[in-house]
Write a structure and sequence with these properties.
Protein name: GntR family transcriptional regulator
Structural class: alpha/beta
Largest sheet: 8 strands, mixed
CATH architecture of the largest domain: 3-Layer(aba) Sandwich
Radius of gyration: 24 Å
InterPro entries: Aminotransferase_I/II_large, HTH_trans_reg/aminotransferase, PyrdxlP-dep_Trfase, PyrdxlP-dep_Trfase_major, PyrdxlP-dep_Trfase_small, Tscrpt_reg_HTH_GntR, WH-like_DNA-bd_sf, WH_DNA-bd_sf
Number of helices: 19
Shape: globular
GO molecular function: DNA binding; DNA-binding transcription factor activity; pyridoxal phosphate binding
Family: In the C-terminal section; belongs to the class-I pyridoxal-phosphate-dependent aminotransferase family.
Number of domains: 3
Pfam family, one: Aminotran_1_2
CATH superfamily of the largest domain: Type I PLP-dependent aspartate aminotransferase-like (Major domain)
Strand order of the largest sheet: 4-11-10-9-8-5-6-7
CATH topology of the largest domain: Aspartate Aminotransferase, domain 2
Length: about 500
């Protein structure tokens, strides 16, 4: 039983933890040993924890077994690990336990967040799918400086629910979409991410499970895992989350919440149909489960006719249901860090209390800028979507020319292609070779715990054309290396006596 409790979750999870360990000069086994030693030092590897077998780790890192054996041997020589026949390789139990490093144990999304902290360096990182800000942000900022700054400075500056003018603008935004909303039903947050954190704290405290789509975006999944719940994944089809599978799951248990991304799902780009939204809302209401709809990519339509987009899922909810709509200005500029939650007044009040404990309210100047942008949001989204269509088409053209064996579905919207490698190939393994060619990818195993998308990964297309071209060239080189040569042989030189 101790092995099962103390064993590191998987080789793939360890590979995600190590990040771009293979960068820089020197033999791979030495760089791997250095990365593992650093992980043990900062507490990412727990004292006494058994590391994956040499064979498993070699497979996911796309190196020879000899490379892993040599790395483990080097760690033993340094006193970082113990190696015993029948017991495997364990982090040394005599090492000092460091303070928490802030990571979510078992979470794959933390590697993506860590990349934001570290910066991309020379890598082309596919962990972030966000574009530069639109010029209207600067215009709105100048207008706030000219017309509103004196009034804002006269305000004490603490509005945990959000700047009243912005809450009113957001409420009007939903009312125009056919979802009548009052400012009391709106809470402004520091991006959609904080909105999900607050909702998880409200709904998952004491809960056993949360139902999520499979695949889903791993940092969001880590938010729920941090609350100590198990995740119950439900698959997708071309209209959104599978209603039959969802009905079965809800009939068997009472989860704390159901989390869906109906408007341009991340990472697949699927747009949930109006009929499917109604089905989901009615199922959740029947079983007494709150729905969190994350529409952070609502302004990223790729179809020419955006007027045909269905209303938010909240518009289809029967009386008495709880649907929380999360959205943000990511499509205008993620750097504003302005998001919000729309929901029942009582839930908004609970979230506001937690928001006040976290930061006493988001910065007012950014909110004032957002309030000026909200009335223009539809027009801004249409203009940006036209550019995104061109980027998506260019990425598809490059992939079709250089990597015709790969497959994907042209997304309805969003910011990425959800690409599948040919059958029999692992995106975890390919991720390691891609790193050595200067590309950081997020493999499907990080987004779907069921294993059904282990050969998939996400490629954002919100990059400059020249970066897209360089990206595909690097991916093609990595793919050629994998197909022709397989794992890299990196045998340390040892004297023969």
């Amino acid at each position: 039983m101790r092995d099962e409790v103390d064993r590191f979750p998987s080789g793939a999870a360890l590979a995600a933890l190590l990040g771009d360990w293979s960068a820089g000069e020197g033999p791979l086994y030495r760089k791997l040993a250095d990365a593992l030693a650093a992980a043990a030092e900062d507490g990412s590897l727990v004292t006494g924890q058994r590391l994956p077998s040499e064979r498993e780790l070699a497979r996911v890192l796309a190196v020879s077994r000899a490379t892993v054996v040599a790395a483990y041997e080097a760690l033993r020589d340094r006193g970082v690990v113990d190696r015993r026949q029948g017991s495997g390789t364990r982090v040394n139990g005599h090492r000092k336990v460091p303070r928490s490093d802030g990571r979510v144990r078992g979470g794959r999304g933390t590697a993506i967040v860590q990349r934001l902290i570290d910066g991309p360096g020379e890598l082309i990182s596919l962990g972030c799918a966000a574009d530069a800000g639109v010029p209207e942000v600067a215009e709105a900022l100048r207008a706030v400086a000219d017309d509103e700054i004196t009034g804002l400075l006269a305000d004490p500056g603490y509005h945990p629910r959000g700047l009243p003018a912005l809450r009113e603008a957001i409420a009007d935004h939903y009312t125009r979409q056919g979802v009548p909303t009052s400012p009391a039903e709106i809470l402004v947050t520091s991006g959609a991410h904080q909105a999900l954190v607050l909702l998880a704290e409200v709904y998952l405290r004491g809960a056993a499970t949360a139902v999520v789509e499979a695949p889903s975006w791993s940092p969001c999944l880590d938010i729920f895992r941090q609350c100590g719940v198990d995740l119950t994944p439900v698959g997708l089809d071309d209209e959104g989350v599978d209603p039959r599978a969802l009905a079965s799951v809800l009939a068997e248990s009472t989860p704390g919440l159901l989390y869906v991304m109906p408007t341009f799902h991340n990472p697949t780009g699927v747009l949930m149909s109006a009929a499917r939204r109604r089905q989901v809302a009615e199922l959740a209401t029947r079983h007494g489960v709150a729905v969190v709809e994350d529409n952070a990519y609502a302004g990223h339509a790729l179809a020419a006719d955006e007027a045909a987009l269905p209303m938010p899922l909240a518009a289809f909810a029967p009386r008495g249901s709880e649907v929380l709509t999360v959205e943000s200005l990511k499509g205008v500029w993620a750097g504003l860090r302005v998001g919000w939650v729309r929901g029942p007044v009582g839930i908004i009040e609970r979230c506001a209390r937690r928001k006040a404990m976290a930061d006493l309210g988001s910065p007012l100047i950014e909110q004032a800028v957002a309030a000026r942008l909200l009335p223009r949001l539809d027009a801004l989204s249409r203009r940006r979507s036209a550019v995104q269509r061109e980027h998506c088409a260019e990425l598809e053209r490059l992939l079709a020319r250089r990597l015709p064996e790969w497959s994907w579905r042209t997304p309805d919207g969003g910011s990425s292609l959800w690409v599948a490698l040919p059958e029999g190939h692992s995106a975890d393994v390919f991720a390691q070779l891609a790193l050595r060619h200067g590309v950081e990818i997020v493999p499907g195993s990080a987004m779907d715990p069921t294993g059904r998308h282990d050969r998939h990964f996400r490629i954002p297309f919100l990059l400059a054309p020249e970066v897209l071209a360089a990206l595909v060239d690097r991916l093609a080189d990595a793919w050629t290396e994998l197909r022709r040569h397989g794992p890299h042989e990196d045998l340390p030189l040892r004297p023969v006596v």
